[in-house]
Amino acid sequence: xxxxxxxxxxxxxxxxxxxxxxxxxxxxxxxxxxxDALAVCVPFPYLAxxxxxxxxxxxxxxxxxxxxxxxxxxxxxxxxxxxADFGCGCVIVGHSERRSLYGEDDATVVRKAQAVAAAGxxxxxxxxxxxxxxxxxxTAQVVTRQLAAVLTVASEELKxxxxxxxxxxxxxxxxxxxxxxxxxxxxxxLRGQLKEAGVNGARLLYGGSVKANNAKALLNIAGVDGAxxxxxxxxxxxxxxxxxxxxx
Length: 248
Ligand code: PEP
Fold this sequence. Notes:
This protein is of the alpha/beta class. The protein is built from 11 helices and 8 strands.
């Protein structure tokens, strides 16, 4: 991912087939420009396909999860070096679905982020509050705790490579994006925390129901360096409209 434009990352989640992916990636390649900064995080089995179809294009590719372990008796796991072998540039770490459905806690997220950075890739670390946490007024406390867990033990490599995605859990897949004011406020908070930890270059993305019709407004908010896009990344035309909104 380059630092030129706002960064747009698609999270395909558990979707796709060889045929579907080929059509989607061809459409993305045809519609993006060489100065766009975009990537797609695909399911593990499709990394080879992404590598084959995207190599040499402006589009990066990555994974949605990684093992915290380098190797060993961990059936079903995929290591960071395996992902690097398939040309991954980035890996989503600590997505709220991983935290809530698979019990990933802050400590696990940190170990995964370290593994990704050590393998020379960009960890996209997700932080965000649930609806009940927001309603209790705990948003700031939750997101700063999640980021602090990473920053307090981060290697220089991780600090250098870190990308953070603010993804309010209640905005993911609901069609209800956070308000501009909420995004501005949380991004300012996280930016301050990053600066205090000496992490000045980290990109700060917003994620949660980013669509073609709200992308421009969300991407124009001060402190937003890009977007992590779930559902809308499955539709090439809509995803390209978001990429286009990131250009101006
Ligand atoms: C996500 O899965 O990270 C996400 C932001 O999903 P959606 O865009 O569908 O809300």
